[in-house]
């Protein structure tokens, strides 16, 4: 196991989710984006990738998956969720260009903050000069994210940009089934159809519900039948 995998560079108190793997992400219509991110994580293909998409489409999952994937081949990585760090000093970015792969999540959170915008702009230039990789995620494309520094929006658009598409109902079912298999859970078809009629469509809510059902199933030693799932949901 590589040192990067064991100890990626992360802000204090943050850990990567072990479940955030490319294998556990159902791509739907985002297959090209996933393939590009996989290649970037391994040091191949595009060195700069920008992901845009609404909350819940899996941007953070994919960035963390890239970090974990890069670590398996000995590449050093850094992951920074800027929505959680925008109130801190941008000095956190100093020296990150020494990492093979840097992932900046929620970069829209620093839009309008002059110090942070200049720091991200400078980091991009240092990463480019060092020959590293940079993955960025935000709610909107770089030119629509409200950056006051026009050069920053321009730099972030230098590489390839993907706007992630949300999953349609059939794909939500497939994503749920994939996550369930990864947890060793059996989801009968009638249970899936029952859930589909009652659960929200955004993936975080879907997976949080699966976590809850998994826990209840283990506690009560019950299969995920429709009556059992209904009894769990009725506790709300």
Summarize this structure briefly.
This protein is of the alpha/beta class and 236 residues long. The protein has ten helices and five strands; from the N terminus they run ααβαβαβαβαβαααα.
Provide an overview of this structure.
By secondary structure, this protein is α/β, with parallel strands linked by helices. It folds into 2 domains: 161 residues, Rossmann fold (3-Layer(aba) Sandwich), CATH 3.40.50; 65 residues, Helicase, Ruva Protein, domain 3 (Orthogonal Bundle). 45% of the residues lie in helices and 11% in strands. The chain is built from 10 helices and 5 strands; from the N terminus they run H-H-E-H-E-H-E-H-E-H-E-H-H-H-H. The protein has a 5-stranded parallel beta sheet, sandwiched between helices. Strand 3, helix 5 and strand 4 form a beta-alpha-beta unit. Helix 5 runs parallel beside helix 6 and helix 7 packs across helix 9. The protein is elongated, with a radius of gyration of 19 Å. The N terminus is likely disordered.
DSSP strand (E) fraction? 5-15%
- As a percent range, the share of helical residues equals 40-55%
- CATH H-level superfamily title of the largest domain: P-loop containing nucleotide triphosphate hydrolases
CATH class of the largest domain: Alpha Beta
Number of helices: 10
Unreliable stretches covering 5 or more consecutive residues: 1-7
The N- to C-terminal Cα distance equals 43 Å
Integer tally of domains: 2
* Secondary structure: number of strands: 5
Tell me about the largest β-sheet: 5 strands, parallel
Class from secondary-structure proportions: alpha/beta
Please state how the strands of the largest beta sheet are arranged side by side. Answer: 2-3-4-1-5
CATH architectural grouping of the largest domain: 3-Layer(aba) Sandwich
């Amino acid at each position: 196991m590589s040192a990067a995998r064991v100890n990626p560079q992360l802000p204090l108190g943050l850990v990567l989710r072990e479940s955030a793997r490319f294998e556990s992400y159902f791509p739907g219509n985002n297959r090209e984006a996933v393939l590009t991110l996989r290649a970037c994580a391994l040091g191949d293909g595009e060195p700069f990738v920008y992901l845009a998409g609404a909350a819940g489409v899996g941007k953070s999952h994919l960035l963390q998956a890239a970090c974990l994937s890069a670590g398996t081949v000995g590449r050093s990585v850094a992951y920074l969720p800027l929505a959680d760090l925008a109130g801190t000093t941008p000095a956190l970015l100093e020296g990150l260009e020494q990492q093979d792969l840097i992932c900046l999540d929620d970069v829209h959170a620093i839009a309008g903050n002059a110090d942070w915008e200049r720091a991200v702009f400078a980091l991009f230039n240092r990463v480019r000069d060092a020959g590293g990789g940079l993955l960025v995620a935000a709610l909107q494309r770089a030119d629509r994210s409200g950056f006051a520094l026009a050069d920053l929006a321009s730099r972030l658009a230098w590489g390839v940009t993907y706007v992630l598409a949300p999953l349609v109902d059939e794909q939500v079912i497939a994503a749920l089934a994939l996550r369930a298999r990864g947890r060793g859970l059996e989801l009968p078809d009638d249970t899936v159809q029952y859930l589909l009629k009652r659960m929200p469509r955004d993936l975080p809510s879907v997976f949080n519900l699966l976590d809850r059902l998994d826990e209840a199933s283990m506690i009560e030693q019950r299969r995920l039948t429709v009556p059992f799932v209904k009894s769990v949901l009725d506790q709300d």
